[in-house]
Amino acid sequence: MRVCYNWLNIRYFIIFVKGIVSNNKRKNMCNRSLKYLCFVILFRSALLCAALDDMPNGAIPLGMGGAYCGSAQTPENLFYNPACVWLNSGIKTIVFTDRLYGLKELRHNGFSSGIHFRNTTFAIGVQTFGNVIYQENVFCTGLSRKFNAVYLGAVIRYGMISIKGYGQDGTMITDLGGLVEFTDTINWGWAVRNALYAEIGRCNEKLPQTIITGFKILPVRQMNLNIDLYKETRFPIDYRCGVEGSFLKYLVFRTGIGTAPSRFSAGFSLIIHNICIDYAFNTHPYLEVSHFFSIGFLINQK
To answer: What does the alpha-carbon distance between residue 59 and residue 54 come to, in Å, rounded to a whole number?
Structure first.
C-alpha cells in the first residue's frame, strides 16, 4: 500500500490552476485550496508503491539544507544518522513542528530524545505527518556507541500508514550509521536508511532505501561547513551544503542549499541557559515556503 508523492504532476497542476484563478479576487485562498485538492487527489488515486519517505525533522538540520550527516550530539539525527545521537552525558530532547509548503493540512510534528548511560547513548523518537485523509506515524528507538574516534549507531523504526477509505498497515524499518572523527576539524559520516529493504502491504511493496554520506569541516573558529550527498533509490542525488556560525554568545545563524529539488534554507538558534529555540525556512521552486520550529532541552549536560 502506498500513496505516491508525484511532485512532477503536482507542479504542472498547480501552474495550470494558478493561471485560471489569476484574476480572482480571492486568489490566495483559491491557490491554497487547489494545492491541497491536488495533494488529496494524487494521494487517493495513485496507490503505486511504498510510502514512509524521509521527512524533515528539526529546524537545525533544515536550516543547513539538510546537510547534517556529520554532526554529532544531536537527538534529531535519530532521523538522519543514528550514530550521531551520541551524547557525552546527560539528557537532550528536541520537539519540532512544521507545515510543509504553508499548508495546515500537511502538519508534521515530532520529538526525539537521547540519554547517555555509561558508554552508550539511547534514543527514542516519534513523528506524525498528514491529515484526516492520509496519516503517517513513526515510532523509533536507537542507540549510539563510541569506539575511540569512531561512532556506530542503529535505529529500529515502526512506521504506520493510514488512508481513509483504504485501511492501514505498518512495518519495521532498520537504519544504520557511522561517524569518524579524522581530526578535531573534520568528521565523516554515513547512514543507510531502510538498510534491510523493509516491505509493506499485501503486495509486499518495498520501501525506498536512502544512502547518505557527508563531511563536517570547521574551516575557522565558531563556524561549521557541512557537505552531504543524499541518494534515495527512486530519485537523483541531492547535493547538500550548509554553513553554521556562532558570532554572538547566545545566537547561532545557519544557511544551506540543496539541488533535488533546487532550494535555499536559512535559520537561527537562540540559546538561553539549557534551552535552545530554533527556527528555519525552506524554499521550493514551485510550492510555497515551509517554516520549521523546534525547541531543545538539556539536562545535566557536562
So the answer is: 15
One-letter amino acid at 165 equals G
* β strands within the chain, DSSP E: 91-99, 107-117, 120-130, 134-147, 150-163, 167-181, 186-193, 199-200, 205-206, 210-217, 223-232, 238-248, 251-259, 262-272, 275-282, 290-299
Which positions ≥6 away from 74 have C-beta within 8 Å? 58, 60, 61, 68, 84, 85, 92, 94
Residue with cell 570547521: 218
Q: Which three cell numbers stand for residue 153?
A: 549507531
d(CA 205, CA 194): 13
Could you report the average pLDDT of every consecutive run of 10 residues in the chain (302 residues)?
A: 36 40 46 50 39 80 92 88 92 92 86 92 94 91 94 96 88 96 94 93 85 94 93 92 90 95 95 93 91 91 55
According to DSSP, the β-strands at 134-147 and 150-163 are antiparallel
Q: List helix spans (H) across the chain.
A: 7-20, 27-45, 59-63
Q: Which cell is 196 given?
A: 534491510
**Predicted pLDDT at 1:** 39
Tell me what pLDDT residue 26 has: 47
186 strand-pairing partners: 217
Report the distance separating Cα 167 and Cα 152, nearest Å.
Answer: 37
CA–CA gap between residue 255 and residue 264 (Å, rounded):
8
Alpha-carbon gap, residue 263 to 65, rounded angstroms: 8
The number of residues making up the chain comes to: 302
pLDDT value for 37: 47
| Full set of structural domains in the chain with CATH | 7-45 (no CATH), 59-299 (2.40.160.60)
Is the previous residue joined to 82 through a cis bond, with omega within 30 degrees of 0? no
**H or E stretch at 227:** strand 223-232
The Cα–Cα gap between 122 and 230 comes to 25
Per-residue model confidence (pLDDT) at position 295: 95
Angle at 82 between CA 61 and CA 245, to 5 degrees: 30
